[in-house]
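Hi L., both proteins are below.
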Amino acid sequence: MKIKLHFTILFLGILMTSCYVPPIVEDGFIEEPIFNTDQVLQSYDLWYVDINATRGNGEVPFLQRAFTISFNRGVVYANNNIVGIGKTGNGFGIDVGAYGTLDGTVEINHDIDGRWLLDVLAVNNNTIELRDPRSGTSYFLNGYHTGNFDYDMVFYDNINYFLQEYVAWEKTFTSEMGALNDFDNENFLQFNPTFFRSSIDASGTSIGNVRWDFEGDYQVYDIENDETLKTLTLAYDGMGNDYFELYVINDSTIELYHPASKTVYEFKGRGYQQFLKSGKTGQGKKRVKTVNPTMNVKRSRIR
């Protein structure tokens, strides 16, 4: 069976040159060397880094952190946070470095991670591959324009990172309706990459003075046939589980609905951590390949 690579008129104009280089076929992808590299990199406003498609055992740190990356007249921009995505830098994110191009290669001088020379290959009409030749690691980037980029999709697909972008979440509302339950007493939550913590300290306690009373594992679930609903399970060490429907009110407020008691809680994010705003902030945050498990349930919260 023949595999065909369909290019848009733009890509045909960019990629056609007098010198032909045979395409490389690997793992179902057709990879074409790119000659007018800068035109290709600027052909889309945003490149979404599909972290789950990454191949290889190495790492390009700034691509590992970014949700989107943009190339604009020698400047590299990135959205490294879910909070503010679509608004920061008019949707492009923050300035993270500079770049220059050669035939089929981009040289990026990143403000934190230094100089990187990456091969640039076309996969299809809106996907490129950035390959680090030193480690053999490849990142696959999908191109979008700001007018048709679904920031909400990125938000919900990466909601685990959203929960981790605040030092803590403070409870600001508990509904009068709903049965009494132990979670009524918990006023702070903190989400780390592999565990959560909670506290019964009084609302208004400064984040630096919060004493964490409980901890355990947590899991965010996707819901079958409902892209905007997530569920959250808090598995307290030695104390059982709490199950919630998780709703995002805005990029600093979440709602947890507790079906067992029919209670609604609202939490506000405290201590926002902007990644790579300066050399001292957020350098440890990296995305990893993640696929949330899926639940086949119906939402029970009536809004």
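That was the first. Here is the second:
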Amino acid sequence: MKRRLILASASPRRIEMFRKNGIEAEICPSNLQERLPEGISPEQTVLYLSLGKALDVERRFLEKNPLPEERVFILGADTVVFTNRILGKPKDEEEAFEMLKSLCGGEHRVLTGVSIVEAGTVNRKSFFESTKVRTKSYSDEDIRRYIATGEPMDKAGAYAIQGGFSAYIDGFDGDYDNVIGLPWKMVREELEKMGFILQN
């Protein structure tokens, strides 16, 4: 039976990661309103949001295709940066500055939650990856120059480890792909366990 993969995200980093690994995923961004229950942990946050995104896209898919003739896998993901609080994407340059200032010369965690749902079935899995990242010290002027590139504005924690901010990374422990936005090794393993066989 044919298998399809739908990515419930428009993230260029996640799309590129699938392409780099030989998968042309269908792109169907979630419309989920990201409201969180009170008092949940960073780990619960990324699991809750990733599952909500996958289920939102599954619901819309099944409305149009109530009896799919193929196996359709939907993947939702959510990434946050955690210091002593959760940092998502900055809403403006001022918030980006505050986030980057708070990360300066310290250690933080990047968490990505992933949920995979096979449409119309109970075949589903949620998991997360956590990577510790250490940053060098940098000046307020360094932060302003980086913000002026526009790169921080759609990134959790207001930075891209694979982009211009790489100069300020002192090291990391764990999965590099996770910091970009998708823990590929874990995603591949779970997709194959669920029945979506990758070619490479």
